Amino acid sequence: MTKTYARPLAMTALAILLAVGTTGCETMSDLDPTGLLSDDSPAPESQFPTDSNQQAAADAATITHHRRRMFVDAGRIDNRVLDVMAEHFQPWVTQQLQSGNYMGWLALDEAGEVVGGSGLMILDWAPHPLDPNSEHRGYLLNVYVDPAHRRKHIASHLIELALAEARRRRIRVVALHSTDAGRALYETNGFRATNEMFYVESVEG
After folding, report:
1. Could you tell me what percentage of the chain is helix, strand and coil, using 3-state DSSP and rounding each to the nearest 5?
2. Domain range annotation of the chain
3. What is the per-residue pLDDT for 137?
4. Strand 14-18 to strand 5-7: parallel, antiparallel, or no bridges (unpaired)?
5. 110, 140, 150, 171: which has the fewest C-beta neighbours closer than 10 Å?
6. pLDDT confidence of 205, banded at 50, 70, 90?
7. In terms of pLDDT, which residue wins out, 23 or 40?
């Protein structure tokens, strides 16, 4: 039996999950033993220390790999479109990590190898009936676990950590986009379908 630990890494806001297993951080109360996330007091300051540009670049490469594999595993053809996405995404997320706009978590196995990750961004957003006092909304992205390590609750741990950070910041609405296969996972973690629609110009071909 192993236990989950979290350690903040820098402005990259990447927390490392060491020896991810089946115990520890099973509930939101485990992530917030003080209960600070449930009251209306001002949000505490971020616990993420400053990190180096070199570390941000390394983390960005890992996140970019996860993002590409996420789309391929969801059924998208691994073609030039994903090449272009990765070419643009890696420098973008490097900058976002360095600025602190992207907060993320990487999951490690007992050998210290990265087996998954997730990210959270805080977006400027118009006040909404779901959160009438706020000018921000959370966005959960890049949730990915290597196929060999799925069905071990790792994705749920990563999602819980992101939601805990959103609650720490008094963000009451967190959005995401899910595949049909991933919908049950997110519903288990408290997400529900909405009436959102997209208009997207084609980039294929």
Report:
1. 35, 20, 45
2. 5-188
3. 95
4. antiparallel
5. 110
6. low
7. 40
